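BUG-239 | component: ligand-complex export | severity: low

The export step for S-adenosylmethionine jobs runs without errors, but we want the raw record kept on the ticket for reference. Input record follows.
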Amino acid sequence: MYDNYAEIYDLIYEFLDYEKTAKKIKKLILKNKRTEVNTLLDIACGTGRHLHYLKKDFKCTGVDISDQMLDVARKNYPDIRFIQADMIELDLKEKFDAIICLFSSIGYVKTYENLEKTIINFANHLKQGGVVIIEPWLTKSNAIAGLASMTTYESDDIKIARQCVTKIAGDITPFEMHYMIAKKNEDVIYFKDHHELGLFDTDKTIQMMEEAGIETKYLDKGLETERGLFIGVKKKNSY
Ligand SMILES: C[S@@+](CC[C@H](N)C(=O)[O-])C[C@H]1O[C@@H](n2cnc3c(N)ncnc32)[C@H](O)[C@@H]1O
């Protein structure tokens, strides 16, 4: 998955305004917190761009499953702590005041069984009164199959085109990302990247969060991607 294209991830998503999103995240954390918030954990942090903007307000840690994404993150932000881990098996033996999991990364856990394990892990890593923010992937009711999409990036030295046609298979969106990359003085390269994300029902996700001791609300319009947003606060009397 992301291992193939960590080096070009920031180029293909150059159009996203991470600074603006980070400002919204900070606001939501401060509005919802029921404890002092000093430490923040970004789960599935990718190349660390949200943390770059959050580190002036919080002591930040990033976790991601992909060593290649973390290599880019560590190179760009050597002052931030990054840890390689799978969110489904996360066990850092540490609790944080805030946890974020953005840009639909939660979808990669694929099944409800994994989603439940992951949400329990989030709860176990959160202090009482701390805030968790999860930006979900699509649901079965708003996912559309057959949509063609293309994202491009170009500079003098590199031209990138990424194309995809959306698919739905049961509770999963399996899709192939087709990449063509032309670098100055090099041959054009082509590769495919296969992604599978689970289509998780909003009410079921809220129920899992509540059962994990997280008081949860859902916003229809969340951050930049307008994919909704779960905002939870760990209950005071929970473990
Ligand atoms: C869409 S990217 C989002 C990255 C970053 N949060 C951002 O907003 O740019 C999804 C990230 O999830 C990571 N990921 C996928 N499955 C994961 C898992 N089971 N545990 C931790 N990270 C995972 C990928 O390596 C990738 O960096």
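Assignee comment: Attached the raw record above. The first strand starts at residue 39 and ends at 43.
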